[in-house]
Amino acid sequence: MSGYSVSYLPPALDCRMSSGGSYSAAVPGFLTPVMTGGAVIAVTLALIAVAEHRRIPPVETPGR
To answer: What is the pTM of this model?
Structure first.
């Protein structure tokens, strides 16, 4: 094997052989929906965190 090619959307891994051919390595079919769900969850949690941060007033400490 002389190298490989990676695709992130959709996830794929193609291995190149020194003879010039290539073959696809096993990337599970459930990986794309899991990655999409994880990205949606991460963005949702980030938006919730930003909204909560803006909603709660800063705590004032005495002496500062």
So the answer is: 0.59
